[in-house]
User: Fold this.
Amino acid sequence: MIAADTEDLPLLANLAHSGETLRNHRAVDSAAPAIPEYLRLNYWWAYIHPAAVKLFERGWLVDLILWGNYRQLSTAALAALGATLDGPTLQVACVYGDLTPRLSERVGHDGGTLDVVDIVPIQLENLRKKLPAATAVRMLKQDSTDLDLPDAAYDQALLFFLLHEQPAAIRRRTVREALRVVKPGGRVVIVDFGRPKWWHPLRYSWLPLISCLEPFAAEMWRCPNGLALPPETEHHQIRRLFFGGMFQMVTLTRH
Ligand SMILES: C[S@@+](CC[C@H](N)C(=O)[O-])C[C@H]1O[C@@H](n2cnc3c(N)ncnc32)[C@H](O)[C@@H]1O
Assistant:
């Protein structure tokens, strides 16, 4: 938890309510979960600074970062979650682009719901702007490693390019939390980087660059399945590779 100076508290409370983020990237509300250190230190430029949202919220740029695979990967994630969301679905962490608006259009009228959690208020605010004013999507400021959600509450959960941004121990906690909140038989769909095949040219040229920008992504490339998921999930994974293994979709089923 990041401590707030006493004189900052009224300002912090106001910002927390208005969904804005402090310029110095500190926690917005002493009662709410704080922005984790790995995120403040390594990703302030991508998710926390107000200019980040203006810069990155462009479909073509997101697609460029994913080497032209955004449409294919987001469509695969949507297909894995189902043409219609007939029960409760959770998306863990906001994403730039139109994935969540497309997902929200699939919410069924008969018991379907969509909740999206994120720890950065400006990201939830940005998502709100991408959804229709009358949306039923719930946006919750929560930490993926400590979800304030009941056990077995969701049919399924989606983690889209979140895990590669987290240190290994945090990543495992995020996956365990997602599994906790889905029902037995429910699924956690993960789309993220994988380990490119040995012949993939980007395996050798992209890694040094991404290591500078995304320190934990490189760590994932070094482990055999690329994700370092909790060992107990090993036998309940279905894996599909994209773009020569550089991206993958892993579906975990809660037993
Ligand atoms: C899903 S990831 C990467 C998305 C991908 N680069 C894109 O936009 O397509 C980025 C999001 O994860 C959120 N995030 C990171 N760590 C988190 C955590 N511990 N709890 C909740 N949200 C988190 C960030 O605030 C950010 O909005």
Remarks:
- The longest helix spans residues 168-181.
- Confidence is low (pLDDT under 50) at residues 1-30.
- The two ends are 33 Å apart (CA to CA).
- Residues 6-57 form one domain.
